[in-house]
Amino acid sequence: MTGVLAAAAVMVPEGDTIAVHEPGWIALDGGVVVDAGAGARTGALDLQDVFLAPGFVDLQVNGVDDVDFASADADGWRRAGRLLLGHGVTSYCPTIVTAPLGTYGPALRRVATARADAGERSLPAIIGAHLEGPFLGGAPGAHPRELLRDAQPEWITALLDGEPGIVRIVTVAPEADRAHAATRLLASRGVLVSLGHSTATYDEAMSASEAGARLVTHVFNGMSPFHHREPGLAGAALDLDRLTPTLIADLVHVHPAALRLAIARKRNIALITDAVAVKAGAVGGIAVREVDGAARLPDGTLAGSVLTMDAAVRNLVGIGVRLSRALEMASTIPARLLSLGDFGHCGVGGRADLVALDRSTLTVRGAWIDGVQARGPEVWV
Ligand code: ZN
Fold first, then answer.
1. pLDDT in tens, 184-223
2. Which of 90, 130, 359, 364 is the most exposed place for a label (fewest CB within 10 A)?
3. What's the 275 CA to ligand 1 centre distance in angstroms?
4. Which domains does the chain possess?
């Protein structure tokens, strides 16, 4: 759209920080934010009592409802996109878990097709795939151990060349890439290396970060517990400036106290859902079902979440995190990690991917993709 959106609260970047204008407005021209400010603005479309914020960016989501991104068809991708948009997600990295090597090429071709389709339909942008496995280590969680392997640079090169620009994040355990050859290769090709599913020590994690790893997959989950004499990957994730941890804020995977400690320690933390298609009963080739608020293997091992990004934001606010801080972790910080300068903020030059949240319930009341307002239920603005 071209015009001005006004709301009771609008979150915009201000230098390196975030400002909340109450009330505020955002001017759009086509799909881009061209101006933003505080106070009332004549001629604006008034969205009234909502909090207007950047659309959410989910760096790790395996599936939604009964749509598993490892095997989704065209209809499934579209439905998943609409469901994600209903929870305020305007861009995401579909995530493929550990699987036989021969399945990754076809899975990435389906991601590439879905990405082009989403772009034509004003569905959430598919930024690119997150490969969580098979290069995992001593804490595989639900990933099938028999399919784990050491990272193979030749195979990675062939995979990246086969679908250029589709792989954006690879979770690698330091113990599966001892000489850091794969980490260096991926970083040099512009792929984010995320450390995870690992029993690496603090020093091993530091050494991987020096080789180019910048992210840590779901800190506290799939790694050695933090210990004051053996801080491990969790300690490195929170201590080292160059690492950004991701967090699953469903209040099942991580205790509220640990969430608060992590968030108090570091500004650069990205929320992920790690949601899986529980209604499909599987994530990739792994059978899962929903028990006690999360997806689990039959033995109870956590195998992903049933979380949505708007619920993650509500959960953080519920444990005492400031709303603008939670929203920054759901949008601005993950977008910046992927060097998507025009995503994840409502400042001048930002892509007009927006979410409107009800100010009292923090439920989604509207969403815009690239300046196009999505149709939603009756309660949407
Ligand atoms: Zn995982």
1. 999 999 999 999 999 999 999 999 999 999 999 999 999 9
2. 359
3. 10
4. 3-53+343-375 (2.30.40.10), 58-337 (3.20.20.140)
